[in-house]
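Format notes (please read before filing issues)

Several people have asked whether sequences and structure tokens are stored in separate files. They are not. Every record keeps both together, in the order shown below: the sequence lines, then the token lines. Line labels are part of the format and must not be stripped during preprocessing.
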Amino acid sequence: MLKRLALRDFVIVPALEVELNGGFSVLTGETGAGKSILIDALQLALGARADAGVVREGAARADITAEFDTPASLQPWLVDAGFDADDGVLLLRRTIDAQGKSRAWINGSPATVTQLREAADHLVDIHGQHAWQSLTRPASVRELLDAQAGVDTRPLVALWSQWKSSSDALERARSQQGELERERERLAWQIGEVDKLAPADNEWDELNAEHQRLSNAQALLDAARLALDAVSDGDSNADSLSARAVDALGEVAAFDQQLAGVIEVLQGAQAQLQDAAHTLNAYLNHTELDPERLGELDQRMSAWMSLARRYRRPPAELPALLAQWKQELASLDAATDLQALEAARAEAERAYRAEAQRIGQLRKKAAPRLASAVTEAMQQLGMGGGRFEVALLPQDTPQSFGLELVEFLVAGHAGSTPRPLAKVASGGELSRLALAIAVTTCRDASGAGTLIFDEIDAGVGGTVADTVGRLMKQLGRDRQVMAVTHLAQVAACADHHYVVSKAAHQGVTTSDVQPVQGEARVAEVARMLGGERLSGTSVAHAQELLAVAGNTAAPAKKRSRA
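Then the structure lines:
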């Protein structure tokens, strides 16, 4: 449920903080006072599109914060997205600066507008004053029925996409068979050419290293022999000289301990010289001139260079190029295998149709239930004898959403033939139908915990208004319900009543929201009944409406600062 909404520098609101309650709440006020201002701000906090026009004139930015109880259904999403979800409080914040740039946070961590919208699906369901317009759009109608049927169409859409992709691949293979075959032959010939060389990964670097060593073998041997003579084999070598130095110092070291360290260093050098001599001997014994191997290397490196020049690649890239060609050839083989492509398309179509038929059965079962519930609501909303039907129209051409269209039909009164809802002419009937459908679907759904009706009762009056108030109050027993309304009968049924007012001070217009109760609430309901001049009749009528509604709402809490 929505617990708190705070605004700063939003449109004509300098600063406002409203604490909200469960049950059924209404927002009322004079025409032009900005009754929908809280709803507009809440929608921004939930990820609606924003522009610089929402920033109060002269302010740097608008700031909106909405605090909710965290629903259990949102907990896994919060954890997966990396947002704090430990204390059961969900804080959504959105700022829009004077240039129209928007920033968002969820529980204090930066978030995207898309993430706000994803969270909103679990939090709030808003029905606007033009809700009937969505009922004329096939997609909206279908989504309403699917919600009642418990249908998730995402797997079906994925299967449709697979079917379409496999069909496109088959048609492309058929139309480009000759071109694909020529490309396949070209690749196969190139692969054959390079496969003769069979270049291995890292082989080019190894060939270069070995070639360099063999082509300089004589110089290497000569240098190693000279080094060995200098270290140990020559008449005057480093090993014998260091041994002579050790012996000379050893004879006098007993007279001065400082020489002991020098002897130790010389002995270490002598050991290293002996190791070097051993290594040089081994090198000379195992290294020899190999002109035959050098010729083999020249020949193979020449083959590498020839292919590299032909395909305009560095020699070291030949193994990767060969692997790439083989992968492309495998793809072309698959693309030209008509039998396999036909089998893939047939399997994709079978999977799609099976899921579409399953969804169609769920829709078929849900349609009469929804029709019956909305028909019942119509009787309460001044459309006695009216009838609501949900028609499923089979399609010749399958679509991503299934094998049938969904259409709402309505008969406004007894004896009339149900017609498509879009052809119902009366604005009042359309509003009442939208209200009947909204109340029915909200009552049956198990989604968002907060329902908002933004002047959805426009065009409704008389005894029907009493019914609207009672229906919303019933909804408020299980979920938080908020309604922006101009009907006194609806306002009288609310558990909590907020009044939106607008005032001008020193040429600056501001808007405010205040909870009302007691005499103040009676006065507001009376104003809604009879205008600004309160009469004894309108006050009495207001008191009667509140008494009939049995309203015993506890005082609402609100903090406001200008």
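For reference, the curators noted about this record: The chain has 19 helices and 16 strands. The longest strand covers residues 387-399.
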